[in-house]
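General statements about sequence and structure are easier to judge against a single worked case. For one protein, we set the task of working out the structure tokens from the amino acid sequence alone. This step matters because it turns folding into a mapping between discrete strings. The amino acid sequence and the backbone structure tokens for this protein are reproduced below.
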Amino acid sequence: MVAERLAAVRRQVEEAIRKSGRSDSPRIVAVSKTHPVEAIAEAYAAGHRIFGENRLQELESKVPALPGDIEWHMVGALQSRKARAASQLAAVLHGVDRLKLVQRLDPTGAVVLVQVNIAREQQKAGAAVDAVAPLVEALVDATVNVVGLMEIPPLPDVEEDSRRWFSELRDLRDLLARDWPTVRELSMGMTDDYVVAIEEGATIIRVGRAIFGARSTKLP
């Protein structure tokens, strides 16, 4: 079942690329949080190599149980005390959102995306828009490899609702890239809105439910 759902997502991504006239393809992070190793192995057998986890504990349990050529992404909010370990284990960190984390990261470890609270939602993590440039500057000064931005916009009623937030993040990325050319990635779009995210320039999409089904309530 996982392989079939993954194939359906790939087809939809290809169609979105075609319709938007893009020449490049976004990376699909298969968000496997709370799902068993067996489900990840099925996606791996279908040719997928990029997976995302939300919790360091879960990542630590899955990495040694699966093939070594998997590219692991940490897609959840980072706790300061776990930031260094996460940056040493994952290839990409999506949740860097405050200055306190800068000195906790291993500059020789994971590449970093700055999480932006683009819609200013009080209940969500993410740097305020006006705090993003100082955070990027601090990461660069600390020789942390910061490569782009990430967002989790408000849950849309319909997919089109997310377009304005994706467009705003793209504009912010373009502004920052004038001073920091390495800031080029856009991690945006999940199961409910990744087609619109692709149309607005996402270079990374994070898809969980559409690939793995409903999230398990049992955590390892």
Observations:
- The two ends are 22 Å apart (CA to CA).
- The chain has a mean pLDDT of 95.
- The chain is about 35% helix and 15% strand.
